[in-house]
Amino acid sequence: MKKLFPFALILITLIAMSGIASAQKVTSHDSSFYKTYPNLFMGRVYFTQKYDDLTFRSLDNGSDLKYSTNGKLGFGIGATYKNLTLNIAYGFNFLNNNEDRGKTSGFDFQLHIFPNKWAIDAALTAYKGAYTLPKGYGAANNNSYYYRNDVKMDLFGLSAYRVTNSKRFSYRAAMVQNEWQRKSAGTLLYGGGIYYGLTKGDSSLVPAKIADELPQAGINNIHFITVGPGIGYAYTAVIAQHFFVTASLVGNLNINFTTEQNSEASTNKISIEPMGIYKGAIGYNGNVWSVAAIIGGNALLFKGSSSDNAYFQSTGQYKLFIAKKILLKPAKK
Predict the structure, then answer these.
(1) Residue 330: its pLDDT value, please?
(2) Which long-range contacts (CB under 8 A, 24 or more apart) does 93-101 make?
(3) Burial 143-169 (b: 16+ CB within 10 A, else e)
(4) What is the pTM of this model?
């Protein structure tokens, strides 16, 4: 069942996004608050950094153990035509100097789309190879990172939230810049999400050197399903029409189904924990040029039977880009 869940979730994601997008009608909005571009082509160059962390809580006041993927800083190019965006980035070696943390391979597909009245996020990530923090914790040498090339960290998820003030607030203006927010505005958000996560290794995920310090010692496989409703708020503050700051935060109350496995047995745990989905942007936007720094991600809590303290998983992406809008002439009828 758990092996089929990621593939079922991918299918549900595609069906849900296509259904919501196709169901949207072009609705009027207050053009004094934000401007749209019906015939827009936009090209961009950008830097991007993705992250995926899982934290094991320690006993009493000891040090927590965090597994982190060694994602590369990437340089990319991209384009937007109307509401369709394609970006391609590559982590060049000259931009990265973190070989002491080991190698992470795999893929990371994060999709953020904003059809009329909706904000939809999908995450499809599968990594292999991770190091631990703090540096030296669990490692044979205190001056090196504890690295595991066998550790897998996967996350598959979908969330959708209704944008109640879509006539005055534009997510696209902040996160994609193919619209232009010219006055400050905010919006209430409500909806929900579902996620599946997996972290596993060939042996105990807790290093033998610190096995006495963490209650998860011996566990080599953790997987969970979390689902629940959420509500939040997003706001864009605009200065002199062109400069903007956007903050968006949604809080979910999720029910979690968690399984922990060791070499001999497995245990299950059902719990209710909060989850956060956050976005932020700051930059300049106008008729021709856009420059922005963006962050977006998820913060998940889920409990296993090994400890009263919840695991904490954080995934997301930073992006810095410059883009140029090119207005195309409408086709002649």
Answers:
(1) 64
(2) 96/72, 98/70, 100/144, 100/145, 101/68, 101/70, 101/131, 101/145, 101/147
(3) eebbbbeebbbbbbbbbbbebebbbbb
(4) 0.88
- Cβ(260)–Cβ(221) under 8 Å? yes
- Residue whose pair of structure tokens reads 């800083």 in the numeric block: 73
List the one residue out of 246, 100, 274 whose CA is nearest residue 176. Answer: 246
Whether residue 148 contacts residue 139, with contact meaning beta carbons closer than 8 Å, is answered with no
- Burial of 268 by CB count in 10 Å (0-12 exposed, 13-18 middle, 19+ buried)? exposed
Q: What is the pLDDT of residue 87?
A: 84
Nearest of 156, 131, 134 to residue 11 by alpha carbon:
156
Predicted local distance difference test score (pLDDT) of residue 61? 74
Three-class SS state of 311? strand
Per-residue pLDDT for 1 more than 50? Answer: no
pLDDT, residue 141, reads 87
Q: What is the pLDDT of residue 305?
A: 94
Q: How far apart are CA 34 and CA 37, in angstroms?
A: 10
Tell how far CA 185 is from the center of its chain. Answer: 24
CA 86 to chain centre: 17
According to DSSP, the β-strands at 185-200 and 147-163 are: antiparallel
Structural tokens at position 76: 């990319």
Average pLDDT value for residue range 98-115: 85
Residues in the chain: 333
CB atoms inside a 10 Å sphere around CB 298? 23
List of E strands, the chain: 34-35, 40-56, 65-68, 74-81, 84-90, 105-113, 118-133, 147-163, 180-181, 185-200, 221-239, 243-261, 266-285, 289-302, 311-327
pLDDT at 317 over 60: yes
